[in-house]
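input
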Amino acid sequence: MELTLLGTGAPDGLPRPDCPCAACATATGDEARAATALLVDGALLLDLTPGPAFAAARAGRSIAGVRQVLLSHPHNGPALELPAGLPAAVRVPDGRELSVISGHRVRALAVDAPGTGYEVTSADGERLLYLPPGAALAGLGTMAGPYDMVLLDVLDRPDALARLREAGAAGPTTDVIAVHLDHDVPPGRELHRRLAAAGARAVPDGTTLVVGDYREVPDLPRRTLVLGGARSGKSVEAERRLESFPEVLYVATGGTREGDRDWAARVALHRERRPGSWRTAETCDLVPLLTEEGPPLLVDCLALWLTHAMDSVGAWDDATWADGGRDALAARTADLVAAVRATRRTVVLVSNEVGSGVVPATSSGRRFRDELGRLNAAIGDECEHILLVVAGQALPLRGA
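output
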């Protein structure tokens, strides 16, 4: 089954008309996108894009053989016209199935936003799922295994992808294509970096894909280290990397601090940001979690883990540090690094990047700075991806 994307943007397109934002200003060339529309094997057209005949011609395709035009959502962008000679555009009622003369079978699926999702099965059995803008499936029911390709609004609804993964409708070989792309994320490198972190990708308008060809499916890292200074956005970046995955275990190493209102406010903010399906564990005992099987882990953060470890071995006191504290902390750090190296779970670790500012006035402060720098370097050696977050911008140091 061949799929040509005549457009990959939001209903208003990208750039939006008369929008002065930075994302729209830089959406040029391959990053400029018309409203999303899909041409399946030259016979089935899902949604309309401005000038579909010209869009198809630019892609080296023709819409002359289209036998069915289906709409997935109420179109609130620029007025669109159906080219002469094509069948009337319709929306299929939820739950109804239809057979196209070309041999494709289409099933309409209920979604939780205005519109309809479509499951398309070719005569050879390849299956794709297409969801309208800002939508997730309303009910997953019984899934017949993973789809070969899924096209959805990944950036606006990462939870929609998480639900598909949880139900087995999206697996490691499912090609996840981001469509309905809007100006919420800068195009180019940042767009593609965020999508790759979710195991998805975007392609330029006019691209033809072969459904069931898995060579372009992004490889997801098992271990990611996210570094950054205070209020840099490192925790947001770490959470973003796992928001399209179900059953994440958020490991909070800070614990609770009785009477500290500022700390309580920080904890509450983090909890409000996290998806409702995530679980939370407040612990610094990381090695057992890394060793056992389970869903992805988000550890926030290593600086607080190190604080607890230094408390435990008396590392703040110069005499204790010299009389066995250094060796005890080194052993704890080595155990953690070894567990990160050997883990079979997906794990995202957050840590503070320190040492670039004022030199601490006390020996214990300098000791913490030095030990955190060593810990970050050792953990980083074991991670496929390392990111440094500065002013909310994630700068890849290794991988993407």
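quick obs: The CA atoms of residues 72 and 132 lie 6 Å apart.
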